[in-house]
Write a structure and sequence with these properties.
Structural class: mainly alpha
Order of helices and strands: EEEHHHHHEHHEEH
Strand order of the largest sheet: 1-4
Shape: globular
Strand content: 5-15%
Low-confidence stretches: none
Amino acid sequence: MLAAIPFPDISPEVFSFEIGGFGFALRWYALAYILGFLLAWWTVAALMRRPAMWPGGAAPMQPADTEGLLTWIILGVILGGRLGFVLFYQPTYFAANPLEILYIWQGGMAFHGGLAGAALAGLAFCRLHGVGALRLADAMALATPAGLFLGRVANFINAELWGAPTRMPWGVIFPGPAAECPWEWVGVCARHPTQLYEAGLEGLALGAVLFWMVWRRGALLRPGLVTGVFLGGYGLARFVVEFWRVADPQFISPDNPAGHVLRLGAAGLSMGQLLSLPMVAVGLWLAWRALRRPAPAT
């Protein structure tokens, strides 16, 4: 009996239709973005309706202002995610094919770029509306893990970003020739479902910790604490999972089969690990800075 899990028969499209020669398809990945933004909007608005949770008993902004914030964040995530993918992962290709930078429907988004874009958009919103940046960052950090969970599940449905070959019983037999292993295991090739590892760590576990901090421990009373834990927690989770995740094809070569972008003797770091290390450092600094100061009075 094979100790592996067949890939579920799930179409990458939620539904599709064609009318008068015009076709439309809603993909799970697009739906994950839509639901992620809506959940983030709902979470931030809910926090703004609870002034007692914030220092001085005053929320950073009015709940109605979250609609304008959402527009800024959507633009920041999409532009930053796409440009991050172009610059961090395939700069040479897109330098030769610059028009394809606009083809976001073909895929190619980088979380670290999306995070930078969201941060810049949030800062711009704060400056225009006189909102405390660190307090708003805490609200946004709490709202992010749900979207991360949905995005990683969509990655799994798309059968992309899978991990290295494994003999573990929870290994998944991903479809397509690209997922074939360099060796066979009882006639099949099973790989680590690293998308689900990340969904569990970056989404469920990190989200549960942040919600516990906010709703049970009053973490919003210490500006920067929730943001610091989010950055450090995501960076650590991503760094660990990258040990089992297959590197992007453009980094793999005969003399670098692991796809390391920073060589450390016989070992090395992937692009995802390299980009996550600053997140861990900044997160630890923000959390330390928030905890060393007395909690403001409510």
